[in-house]
Amino acid sequence: MKDEGVEREKIQSRLSRIRHKIIVLSGKGGVGKSTVAVNLATAAAVAGYAVGLLDIDIHGPSVPTMLGLETPSLTGREGEIHPVRLGSLKVMSLGFLLQNPDDAVIWRGPLKMGVIRQFLSDVDWGDLDYLIIDAPPGTGDEPLSLCQLIQPLDGAVIVTTPQRVAAVDVRKCVSFCRRLSVPVLGVIENMSGFVCPKCGEITRIFPGEGGREIAADKKVPYLGSIPMDPTVAEAGDKGKVFVYHYGATATGKIMQGILAALFGDEKDKKD
User: pTM, whole model, 2 decimals?
Assistant: First the structure.
């Protein structure tokens, strides 16, 4: 078993070469958290940043499918794993370690904590401008460990959907971040309406604007609403990043506006 002090020192050494670290959270599963993380990382890479994407959603590592990386070959040496490259984007996911993508990950807490620590200590990201972390849903052990181990975190992006049963969990995520002194960069409301594939008109399906209302109530930034567009699901299934391949669509422009609010319009100047 690794000495905890040595392991923590190794984690800090890896993370010290990463300028900004952003975690993507959701109060529950199925709200499009991984879709947001993938498009966030890709948009930053296309803008010219050096970006890594860490998929640590242990029970639902969907990033490989969304990026068309379901059969990558991992390389490295003892105590070091090289992330998979997709153009300029560096990617690491638990899905890369499964022999079969249909395999269920049936692990108890200590084993899950162990793989989180290993990913943070052993993956050689090199020098990055941004590391985007796709966290497991909820506010349990895994997100807690990530937020405690990745220090300092620049902040969290919280993803929700409009209906109350999902949006109410935004409150829990905001409270979770505040308890851990993690800044909330903003709330994104996904599936906020349906985009007609023929005319492009957006029709609201779920009542209310849960994400916007709760963001205002909790005094955190509201980054915007992403409509329910069939092309987003199609792009994910085909391993095509939506904001890259469909950026000219109405939904693509909405998503680009949200991402621009996070990264700014201009690339950070290097020191």
Answer: 0.89
